[in-house]
Automatic annotation (TrEMBL):
It comes from the Eukaryota. Residues 31-237 form the Rhodopsin domain. Belongs to the SAT4 family. One of its GO terms (cellular component) is membrane. This is Rhodopsin domain-containing protein. Keywords: Membrane, Transmembrane, Transmembrane helix. It is found in: Membrane. Its main location: membrane.
Length: 282
């Protein structure tokens, strides 16, 4: 079946982002393991967590691209999230198939973001965990992320009552508005993103590396904060009266948000290993 995603600018942008972000994410995670080997250490917990985040993201990219290729009405289905903007003329089989894919995407996005943040926590613990106060804050962040992930998965599964109304609009029941779901989901994720950045900047003061290396890490922290900013942007988009615009804008932003999280998790590990190796040589 013909690929028609470029008939809609939002779907076209999402497709291009997936095609571009997939190889970049693969390269970043490969670079991380190469830098680990060059630094003379074995892959640690933070490396495997980053790999898990990247793997989930890449699987979602593959599914999304193949889904766009064999579903004619992807754009229409994305505008009908949680029963809003319902077009009863839409083919029920297409709606059900696409809506299930959307729900799986939402749940997997929470998971790979969590793995990326746990990877950062594991990296922080390896670098700064000898300081008991730092170690405590790192454990708190990891635990809060685990609690947040569990709560948000439950929220996603309860957003429609019964659950199958999410993919079967003709089923009796109701769903929370998209804006309500966004307000519940995005702030916790964004706040944890920001606090992880601030924690890194605070702990970095004690890191005995060159100023140049510290600025490189600060730059990565700044890029990491972009994921938190995008979370609040999605809240604003969810209140747009045009649900088609909301759907078309949300998924490209999701892709960028997760891509930034995975890249920063990989980039920090690669940069720290490489810079510390240089310091040891000096």
């Amino acid at each position: 079946m013909a690929l028609d995603v470029f008939h809609d600018s939002g779907q076209g942008a999402y497709f291009v982002l997936l095609v571009v972000c997939g190889p970049i994410c693969t390269a970043m995670i490969a670079l991380r393991f190469v830098s680990t080997r060059l630094s003379g250490r074995r892959p640690g917990l933070e490396d495997w967590l980053a790999l898990a985040a990247a793997a989930i993201f890449l699987v979602r990219v593959a599914v999304a691209i193949s889904g766009n290729a064999d579903v004619d009405c992807v754009t229409s289905a994305l505008t009908i999230i949680n029963g809003q903007g319902l077009d009863e003329a839409l083919d029920q089989e297409v709606y059900e198939k696409t809506s299930k894919r959307i729900l799986a995407t939402d749940l997997s996005t929470l998971l790979d973001q969590s793995f990326a943040k746990w990877s950062l926590c594991a990296l922080y613990h390896r670098m700064f965990g000898m300081n008991r106060q730092y170690a405590l804050w790192i454990y708190v962040h990891a635990a809060v992320q685990a609690i947040t992930y569990t709560a948000l998965v439950i929220l996603q599964l309860l957003q429609c009552r019964p659950l199958n109304k999410f993919w079967q609009w003709w089923t009796p029941g109701d769903c929370f508005p998209l804006s309500t779901v966004a307000v519940a989901v995005e702030p916790p994720n964004s706040i944890i993103d920001f606090t992880l950045v601030l924690l890194a900047l605070f702990m970095m003061r004690d890191l005995q590396i060159k100023t140049e290396a510290k600025w490189m890490l600060r730059l990565l922290c700044g890029i990491g904060s972009l994921a938190g900013i995008l979370g609040f942007l999605k809240i604003g988009l969810s209140y747009n009266a045009d649900k088609g615009y909301t759907g078309d804008s949300r998924y490209p932003i999701d892709s960028i948000q997760v891509h930034r999280s995975v890249d920063v998790a990989s980039g920090k590990g690669s940069t720290m290993d490489f810079r510390l190796e240089q310091e040891d040589e000096v």
